[in-house]
Design a protein that fits this description.
Strand order of the largest sheet: 3-8-9-10-11-12-13
Radius of gyration: 21 Å
Shape: globular
Number of strands: 13
CATH topology: TIM Barrel
Helix content: 25-40%
Number of domains: 1
Order of helices and strands: HHEEHEEEEEHHEHHHEHEHEHEHEH
Mean pLDDT: 94
Amino acid sequence: MMTLPGVDRRGGCIMNSRERVLTTLNHREPDRVPFDMGGTVLTGINVKAYTALRDYLGLPRIEPTIVDVVQQLAQVDDDVLDHLGVDVKNVAPRSSASYQIEIKETEDGNYTYFYDEYGIGWRMPRAGGLYYDMFDHPLRGDIDESNFDCYVLPDPKDPARFVGLREAAERVVKEEQRALVVGNLSAGIFEMYLWTRGFIDGYADFIGRPSLSQKIMYRFMDMQLAYWEKMFDVLGNMINVVQLADDFAGQNNMLISPSSYRRYLKPLHKELFDFIRSRSSAKIFLHSCGSIRKVIPDLIEIGLDIINPVQVSAAGMDSAELKREYGKDLTFWGGGIDTQRVFDENHTPEEVREDVKRRIIDLMPGGGFVYAAVHNIQGNVPPENIMAMWETLQEYGTYTT
């Protein structure tokens, strides 16, 4: 049943958002399951769905701010955060002062495209496009270690990235009393290796030329270490959650073998996690899509606190089984509704409610659960389904004594 405003089921005042999130991250039961929409670029909402949601809620029409160009994610504005009781908020690094995205149009007029500061090319169809896909990789083709030495990475400590971040973080923590999530400089170590080298060459080198692939991955890890060193200098202990990502699994299995993960990638993740723990008490959040169950024990071993998106549609990723096996060690941030098989325009609000109810029952006992959809809310999700999800969380997401 729903909690009366101002009173929790324990007979006291309800928790503020920051207290609620910190309680569940420490594997204790708060007053209710914390809710995230827009707290990361992995739990956000596509601009088309966001515009429709604002209209549905009767909120003023505005020009949405795009916070992630590639994924076409909208900034979730304060009126929506307040209306839905969102418990977390993101503070993310700004762009480098030396690089600005310039969106262009292909000669045939079929795509818009741009190159990011890493030299990766992205394009989106003009007709019906929802987000940008990679089409060009700066390290593709026949290269060796000497060629790679000529590749210049952006400056992770560029002061322009950190302008205004402390003030924004203080507003989140002190005024809004929400939990503060701070995002990474880039995609993950393995991801950035593949995005710059290209998927064909990257996977071939990962096994056939491991010295080259390791050199590239270590460069990206060093870049991220430098960024986090600067970020901790700027924000100190205000950070509640450090948000990382690295995709290395697919729908039915991992994209690299568990043994390859342990040999080549796990040591880099451990070094990054160890550094974060040496500088901060923040919880470590890792986004990794797909069927990652085979290496969840490895991630726990090296100090992971939070797993996202909890892709319940992937092989071996049943929400009840994951909670039973790993719920004492990991917080599940996501897994709240199956975006692949339920959360779209082809399913009814009642079908949405049934899936949300199931996931809440599976994941909420004992704390260790922050509610979010499995990955970003896509542009084809109608507002009726978004609100069916939210209403079900309000109905079933309150803890009982």
